[in-house]
Amino acid sequence: MQVLSEDQVRSVLTYEALLPAVERALIDLSSGRIQQPVRTILSIPEHAGRFGLMPAIDGEYIGVKLVSVYEGNRTLPTHQAVIQLLSARTGEPLVAMDGRLITEMRTAVVSALATHMLAPPNAQVLAILGSGVQARSHLRALRLVHSFSEIRVWSGTPQNARRFADEFGVTACDTAESATRGADVVLSVSSVSEPLVRGAWLGERTLVCAVGAVGPHMRELDDEAMRAAIVVESREAAQRESGDLLSSGQTVYAELGELLAGSKPKPFGRVVFKSLGVAAEDLASAALVWKIWQEREGK
Predict the structure, then answer these.
(1) CATH of the domain at 223
(2) For residue 292, what are the contacts with CB-CB under 8 A and spacing of at least 6?
(3) b/e code 175-213 from CB counts within 10 Å (16+ = b)
(4) Which residues in 89-224 belong to E strands, given as ranges?
(5) How far apart (Å, rounded) are the C-alpha atoms in residues 141 and 58?
(6) Together in a domain, 129 and 116
(7) What does pTM read for this prediction?
(8) Does 214 lie in the same domain as 75?
(9) Per-residue confidence (pLDDT) for residue 297, from 0 to 100
């Protein structure tokens, strides 16, 4: 069994290749062609950590991601992961690969697919709430699917917002409200447990991609912001893992895969894409890495 490091994954994985692979996985998930239970989460309170188990089966491959989240990490990434691929035909272990970069990139690609599908026509202004790993990956992915005339960034640590703005040539804002008001697309990628995005700041047709709060007791949107057409990756996962959905009492309009497949019409008006991350995305990404790696190695 082969083992691929993060550097090896990075050498073959691109956002351009991930976009169609993850799009197909979301369509197949919504159509029932991918088997995927809701992830299992174990708490590690003595170290303020969480451990997740995320399995899926899709035709040729069985995949499982083992992911840890330690928000207090300072010298190590807060999110770390390993993805194992096995043959669905024989059960044979094929490859284990570092999953941190895959998690980073596939999360951004899913938001890019949602933005391409759901952003208001002629969207010009993008607001990014957060300035860390996901803010960077999201901006790179979104620039592949849409051209914004104005991009704003806010961070709870102002110097980080200024550093991000200098790096990417965008505008740093002093408050989340000033970044959000007037934006056509709002990316919430700051790890929070209480509402950060307020409905009073949003336009009637704003798209909100809410990525920062995962868990039944975590919120990043207030109830007014959640008065929108709610789109998710998986209804089953959202009904168990989204505090925004559970606490607001809203219902899911559609899975993103249904919209991508054209089996449900696009919603009109304000839309919230509540992203939680699902195993089907990790399996598709890992299978893509493995395919390209084997081709490169002549196997």
Answers:
(1) 3.40.50.720
(2) 12, 13, 17
(3) ebeebbbebbbbbbbbbbeebbbbbebbbebbbbbbbbb
(4) 93-98, 125-129, 150-154, 171-172, 185-188, 207-210
(5) 25
(6) yes
(7) 0.96
(8) no
(9) 87
